[in-house]
Amino acid sequence: RLGDADAKDAYLWMNGELPLGGGELYWFGGLSKREGDSSGFFRTGGDNRTVPELYPDGFLPNIITTVEDGSLALGWRMNLNDSWDIDLSVNHGRSKFGFEEKNSVNVSWWYEPIDPLDPTGARYNESPTEADTGTLQFTQTTLNADLRGTIDWGIGNSPLSLGTGLEWREDGYEIEAGDPVSYMYGRTDDRNIPITGQTGDIAQPGIQGFPGFSPREAVDESRHNWAAYLDTEANLTSDFLLGAAVRYEDYSDFGSTVTGKLSARLDMSPEFAIRSTISTGFRAPGVQQLFYGQRSTNLNAAGILTDTLTARQDSDVTRAFGIEPLKEEESVNFTLGVAWRPNERFALTVDVFHIDINDRIIFSSNIQPEDPATCGPANAGCPIRAILDPIGVGQVLFFTNAIDTKTEGVDIVADYNTEAWGGNLDLTALLHWNTTTVNKRHSDSSVLAPGVLFDDTQVTLVEEGQPGQKHILQAFYTLDQWEFTLRENYFGAVSGEGFTPGIKQTWGGKWLTDLAVGYNINDKWRVTVGANNVFDVYPDKWTAGIIDPNNPGLNNPFPALGFIYGWETLPFGINGGYYYAKLDFRF
Questions:
Q1: Where are the alpha helices (DSSP H) in 285-339?
Q2: Is residue 514 part of a domain?
Q3: In a domain, 310, yes or no
Q4: What's the pLDDT at 446?
């Protein structure tokens, strides 16, 4: 099965406000539940991950997911006088992601010898074919106190606009272990017992498809931080606006930091202005990046299904590689632009931007062991294999501060509004170009060089895996109760290697057309029919056969494995056209 998972979604959202104490009590939030049904990779009948007595022709493990999200914000705001507003709020949210495996098997349970001292004796020949494989949960609680107003400071042509406030936030992250059969190596979970599958190789632990989270991976962690900010803005002259902001933030696990922003706007005439902003940024590692770990099955560089360990950044595995714990990202952002509005009907803005991010947190490469033929006794001379073999995985990856990047680009927005054919026509163009460059690769490991920790395949994903161009051209026409929308979306070319060095392919840019026609029956009812990607455009397909004329032995394995399209870089998916009709009711 390729493509999107089968899904059943339900959403409930609400908002409201009431007068209270001379101010206003407000709230908003909602609940959602999404159930998904997808599959892992197919296991053939002769694969060591298959039990022929259960699945003589092989099997497709079934991954069932349930996502439950909920959030509620409650606040109170009030105008203190003509110049100042206060806003106090609390916001709590939770996202819970549950996993279940069906139509599967734990091969090590099936082939486990009844007598551990007799590996070739009678076996249990039994394993559940489904299991709860665990749950991820993220929670966040935020308290805010914001004050905004103006001060007559006697400088320039306007009062000083001032914003200040405090924020306290707590992030929580949990991983709940799955059923024992979902992660264990046999019933004893003793790696010293040789359990062999149908091919004679060691049987893989855990249920096939999405092995469960084990108690070793289970966590219940949290951290908190608080922040204070000051934001000011004033017209120093009738033509010159200057703004400045500073933010102090203190983390329970990463210390404190100060970031700032300067912005300016110069009106050269009533129609034309120049604007610019420079700012610094700080991002502590997310709790998910700090505490996530899991074992799953993926394709390795040879296109072979391999057990992959996503190791926690502070695990024994990362320590064995000499990887330092995660630290914060730091960034500098600069923009320069112009705004032109020659009349009431036409507006144009052009902005260029430059963003430097140092110590960017990102997944490492899929790190694979050395060729066993090159290793000595006890894996001498093969430090990666010496780390991975004892834990029974074929490759490992983890979050790390792997790279410094530079992103540059241009944004152009143009809008033209006019009366036409008895109605109103609005034409909009949003044009975007960007390039991202990996300036430096980091590695503090004595085992992994920078080019191994973050290899060229990963560099391709960062630099070319997102479109360098994204454009939207839209015409929106209204006539009485009718609304007509025509939108052209352009996604530029992307490149990727399918996590496989040397298998680089570029998928060309595509135009997608959206159409919609709406009719407002009255103030409450509205009907719409439309289509996204009306002409059913698809991405380019994987190229089969030899992909490098200079290396005739290098073939693209993915078409032979059943993959028609790429999966890591496609910006508009593989679903083709989407056609709909909807009825809206407002109350």
A1: 287-291, 316-321
A2: yes
A3: no
A4: 81
Q: Greatest CA span in the chain, whole angstroms?
A: 93
pLDDT for the residue numbered 138? 97
pLDDT at 23: 93
**Cα–Cα nearest to 263, from 234, 240, 242:** 242
- Asked, for residue 98, whether it belongs to a domain, the answer is yes
Residue 381 sits at φ, ψ, to 5 deg, of 80, 0
**Residue position matching structure tokens 């020659």:** 342
d(CA 509, CA 492): 4
Stretches where the chain sits below pLDDT 70 are 1-2, 296-306, 499-502, 544-562
The DSSP element (H or E) to which 386 belongs, if any, is helix 383-388
Beta bridge partners of 309: 295, 396
Tokens read off for 340: 């032109």
| pLDDT per residue as tens digits for the range 284-322 | 999 999 999 887 665 555 555 567 889 998 889 999 999
Residue 225 forms part of a structural domain:
yes
Q: Which of 197, 230, 263 is the last residue of a domain?
A: 230
Cβ count within 10 A of residue 238: 10
pLDDT score of 304:
58
Nearest to 540 by CA among 471, 493, 478, 489: 493
Structural domain including 100 reads 17-230
pLDDT in tens, 320-333: 999 999 999 999 99
* Count of structural domains, the chain: 2
Residue 89's nearest CA partner among 161, 134, 40, 145 is 145
Count of all residues that appear for the chain in the document: 587
Coarse DSSP helix, strand, coil percentages of the chain, rounded to the nearest 5 percent:
10, 55, 40
Residue 507: Cβ-neighbour burial (10 angstroms; 0-12, 13-18, 19+):
buried
Which pLDDT score is estimated for 173?
A: 96
Interacting residues of 112 by C-beta distance below 8 A, sequence separation 6+: 123, 124, 186, 187, 188, 193, 195
Instruction: Please name the residues in contact with 118: beta carbons below 8 A apart, sequence gap of 6 or more.
Output: none
Q: At which of 180, 207, 230 does a domain end?
A: 230
Any idea which residue has 């799953």 for tokens?
296
DSSP state of 354: E
Residue 460, classed as helix, strand or coil, is helix
CA angle 98, 61, 495 (to 5 degrees): 85
Q: pTM of the prediction?
A: 0.86
Which tokens go with 508? 């060309």
Give CA 332 to chain center in angstroms: 22
What percentage of the chain reaches a pLDDT higher than 90? 66
Backbone angles phi, psi at 200, to 5 degrees: 95, -10
According to DSSP, the β-strands at 395-397 and 305-310 are parallel
CA dist 547 and 542 (Å) reads 10
Contact call for residues 337 and 276 (beta carbons, < 8 A): yes
Query: What pLDDT is attached to residue 240?
Result: 94
Q: How far is CA 522 from CA 334, 423, 526, in A?
A: 47, 18, 7
CB of 511 within 8 A of CB of 519?
no
Give the pLDDT confidence score for residue 547 in this predicted structure: 58
Q: What is the DSSP string of 389-450?
A: GGGT-SEEE-EEEEEEEEEEEEEEEEEEEEEETTEEEEEEEEEEEEEEEEEEE----SSS-H
